[in-house]
Specification:
This protein has 14 helices and seven strands. It is an alpha+beta fold. It has three domains: about 90 residues, TATA-Binding Protein; about 110 residues, Hypothetical protein, domain 2 (Endonuclease III, domain 1, Orthogonal Bundle); about 40 residues, no CATH class. The strands form two sheets. A five-stranded antiparallel β-sheet has the order 2-6-5-4-3, covered by helices on one side. Strands 1-7 form a two-stranded antiparallel sheet.
Length: about 290
């Protein structure tokens, strides 16, 4: 039997700079009620860890990210740290990435304005693909509202504060998820098929599978196209070199930076950092 921690605070080092404001902005726009909460300088969410549910709160302390874990079992601390590091992209080397992107004249100003961008990664591959499926071809706001309705059907964990529910698991999505999802029938079918596959093989789209295998596995499901498979692969694996095909915000950002006609050429020049080009283009579009 392992012991539960009321609260423990850890320092997670990173290589500067860290654009924590960008991470907060990304997660605030997509925060699922009851599962996530973003305030002025911190992000809080529930985690489904091997020994049970926990709450993680992170904030930038200048030189390290502070992680407060509550209700976690002691044996789950390493797993929680690994997931949070991935969620915040803390293992990236932003100076190398910024130097590569900033060397292109059309990108230099954007990199100077927003240095240290990190890829918002995935705390759970299953959650990431479910969110990507729900969000296909609709606005971030609409997708977040649908996901919040789904999370509201999950059991209350009894935690104090704004987060008190876990995101629906693959088992829930394969069963009750069909009842609580209010989207189109085609999307409900995609969710069910993916969820059933993940129940059978939880590691199907996990980090151990590899980028090509994850992309191919996702693309094989009805209703999942190249954009969704690329987006999910990018975030699940933390892939640094993904430029999303036919992404409207990417194209809008390229036009805003004056590279609308030469985006593919610019993308080739910044390999293997096209994911971070994507992030800058999203920012430019916004």
């Amino acid at each position: 039997m392992v012991d539960a921690l009321e609260a423990a605070t850890l320092a997670l080092p990173y290589r500067p700079p860290l654009n924590f404001t960008h991470l907060l902005r990304f997660y605030r726009a997509r925060a699922v009620t009851g599962v996530e909460h973003v305030d002025e300088d911190s992000y809080t969410r529930t985690l489904a860890l091997p020994h049970g549910a926990a709450i993680a709160t992170v904030w930038d302390d200048g030189g390290s990210v502070r992680l407060e874990l509550r209700h976690a079992h002691a044996d789950d601390v390493p797993a929680a740290v690994a997931r949070v590091r991935k969620m915040l992209g803390l293992d990236a080397d932003p100076r190398e990435i910024d130097a590569a992107l900033g060397a292109h004249p059309a990108l230099a100003a954007a990199v100077r304005a927003d240095p240290g961008l990190r890829l918002p990664g995935s705390v759970d591959p299953h959650e990431t693909i479910f969110r990507a499926i729900v969000g296909q071809q609709i606005t971030v706001k609409s997708a977040t509202a649908m996901l919040s309705d789904m999370a509201a059907a999950m059991p209350d964990l009894g935690f104090d504060g704004p987060v008190n529910r876990l995101f629906p698991s693959a088992a829930v999505m394969a069963g009750d998820g069909q009842r609580i999802f209010r989207g189109p029938e085609s999307r409900r079918r995609s969710l069910r098929l993916v969820a059933e596959a993940l129940v059978r093989d939880p590691g199907l789209i996990g980090p151990a599978a590899g980028e090509e295998a994850v992309y191919a596995a996702l693309l094989a499901f009805p209703g999942i196209g190249p954009w969704t498979a690329s987006y999910a692969t990018m975030r699940i694996l933390g892939s640094p070199d993904v430029l999303l095909p036919n992404d409207s915000a990417v194209r809008a950002g390229a036009r805003a930076l004056g590279i609308g006609e030469s985006l593919d050429e610019v993308a080739d020049l910044v390999r293997p950092w096209r994911t971070y080009l994507t992030l800058h283009l999203w920012n430019a579009a916004a």
